[in-house]
Design brief:
With about 190 residues, the chain is α/β, with parallel strands linked by helices. The chain has helices at about 1-10, 35-40, 55-65, 100-115, 135-150, 155-165, and strands at about 25, 45-50, 70-75, 90-95, 120-125, 170-180, 180-185. The chain has one domain: Rossmann fold (3-Layer(aba) Sandwich). The chain binds S-adenosylmethionine.
């Protein structure tokens, strides 16, 4: 995931007002490249990578290699079974597309519950364009998710915005990152 997403992970820190926040959780962090890039770009932040417990050693090693272990910690858990830790910003990088609509909504609710008023969620992946006509990569990836997972599918920025609003987020914004990747942000 680091190899595929490193370029866009480096853009994410620049497209969000991190100066207004202190803490973040990168949910489904894998090796943690998104968390590492955010921490490297913003030395005032402290964050956590949340993932299944077996991921911990690769996360810890990568954070240490990048010199951010003092500000990044790993939290092991299952985001369907337990709440996310309380924080100012929750990030989901290439996570929602793995799951069906009900699971996507639950993950957005988990983020909402972890945030104070004014906290933010960032959902980042290869969004399909709203007309479903030009982001061929996003469309093909969605087909791939339908084949590879029981219920996963990719979706448009408009879909994500509507789901965020249903959960209670406002001030939603869609921003292009790099190549097929964009991010959608919402504020509690
Ligand atoms: C597609 S990868 C995304 C990795 C990274 N966020 C990125 O954008 O490069 C999905 C991640 O979700 C994690 N994951 C899957 N099911 C999970 C669960 N129930 N609770 C927590 N993490 C989970 C996987 O271990 C994996 O690291």
């Amino acid at each position: 995931m680091t190899g595929v997403n490193h370029g866009a992970n480096r853009k994410t820190p620049k497209k969000f007002p991190w100066q207004d926040y202190q803490r973040f959780v990168d949910a489904g962090t894998a090796q943690g490249d998104l968390a590492v890039q955010v921490a490297l770009a913003h030395p005032h932040l402290a964050g956590a990578g949340f993932d299944l417990p077996e991921v911990e050693p690769i996360f810890e090693e990568y954070a240490a290699q990048n010199g951010v272990s003092d500000r990044l910690r790993f939290i092991g858990g299952d985001f369907f079974k337990e709440p996310l830790p309380q924080t100012d910003v929750v990030m989901y990088g290439h996570i929602l597309h793995d799951w069906n609509l009900q699971e996507k909504m639950l993950l957005l609710e988990r983020a909402y519950d972890a945030l104070p008023k004014g906290g933010a969620v960032i959902v980042y992946e290869a969004f399909i364009d709203d007309d479903r006509s030009s982001n061929a990569f996003g469309l093909m990836l969605s087909l791939n998710m339908l084949i590879e997972t029981p219920g996963g599918f990719d979706y448009t920025g408009a879909d994500c915005t509507a789901w965020m609003k249903e959960v209670g987020f406002s001030e939603t914004r869609v921003e292009h990152l790099l190549g097929p990747d964009s991010m959608v942000t919402g504020v509690k």
